[in-house]
Amino acid sequence: MLVYTTLGGYAIGAVIAIIGLFMQDDTLPALGLGVAVLVTAVALAGGAFLGGQTLARFGGLIGLAFLAGAGLAIGGGAIAPWLPALGAAIAVLSIIGLVLLGIRRRVPMWLGARNDGSPD
Hints:
The protein is mostly helical.
């Protein structure tokens, strides 16, 4: 369902941008791009939250912390020079937290895991 919602949001953004191009309005293509970016952000936030919630009761907050940390690591330099380092630290700590929650719940949290749960 989330995929169809995302694709629908992209289609709406594209239609807004195309209408702006035909009307020769410079603000509508930017609005269409903004709609597509917002839909992407909502889909990523929903996936991060629900993915964390499958591991533990408040695991969704750790998933959202990872998303926020990754966002700060990528674009935080536009706000302050120390924010990318903080974002990277938050992302790494969130990954460690999610892996520990997965191990606690006996979810195979390593690459190359077999279907029976054994790492070999």
